[in-house]
Amino acid sequence: xxxxxxxxxxxxxVKYLKHDSxxxxxxxxxxxxxxxxxxxxxGRIAAIINHSHNRYYGxxxxxxGFFDCENNLETSRALFAETEKFLKEESLTHxxxxxxxxxxxxxxxxxxxxxxxxxxxxxxxxxxYEKLILDAxxxxxxxxxxxxxxxxxxxxxxxxxxxxxxxxxxxxxxxxINMRKLxxxxxxxxxxxxxxxxxxxxxxxxxxxxxxxxxxxxxxxxNPDIINFAEKDGESAGFSVCLPNLNELLAKTKKTPxxxxxxxxxxxxxxxxxxxxCRLAILxxxxxxxxxxISAWLFHEQLARTKKHYETAELSWxxxxxxxIIRNIEMMxxxxxxxxxxxxxxxx
Length: 348
What we know:
By secondary structure, the chain is of the alpha+beta class. The chain has helices at residues 14-17, 22-26, 51-57, 73-89, 129-135, 157-168, 182-196, 208-213, 215-221, 247-250, 260-272, 294-306, 323-331, and strands at residues 28-37, 40-50, 61-69, 94-97, 99-100, 106-107, 109-110, 139-150, 172-176, 227-232, 235-244, 277-285, 312-319, 335-346. 34% of the residues lie in helices and 29% in strands. The mean pLDDT is 92.
């Protein structure tokens, strides 16, 4: 087992494959395939049909995800052959991935910095996976970046000035999520998510049921002080979601048998230990309030709260074409340290 590999939270993969999963109910189909060698699993892949994506873009794109394979071209070719056959039978014209199972979940293939474990909600894979995907005829169509930011870096004066200007205006407040009213708070996140992130490549509106299905995991791992809403005169204008890097604790459960024992071990670690890092996964401002410095203010306040609890923060993922956000991150002292890629090919 690679020392950088971190096992998922028990049940996190299989929940998507259940017939009553929120993805199946709200978005489409998932067909899973397993390759066997001498009676032992040698690889897996899932063919994914996301009707929400295809309706939104007027596409006929199929997806692949949950890819895991030995370093053997025969095995990977067999997996991709079955996936492509299924997608073509469903009258789809392209295959794109990896998505686990959508752009709103874990996605992308890691293509550098394999010696480092991933942060929560970000994929990790061995270096040879890219060779297997390229062999299947897919080509890279998008790069996603992860940035690392030390909490010891001082805030730039420019951002501090913007923050001071915003705070002098009446009506603006930043408040933390109220976990006792989680359903209502998730409804607010649902609305803001779909109006603030729709400029991202491959964006697909998230369903409220997707967020509600993630509520139990949020209750288990979240630090309410670093999930925040920006409000103007009581109206939600933006939000930021930062998550403790649960992968630091999951890495300590690798020697624990998978299943209920590993889950219990994880619960114990959550109660007794605190990760040193966190991941800023989402930061968005409603179109009504864009270009007023609100993003910089929200970023400033989010990091000020994060510094109280953590030593480092990963900011991910950032689309390669989002130069405005990249400039802001680099101005804050963030350093690009990981690249993920999305691959695609036309189905003949």
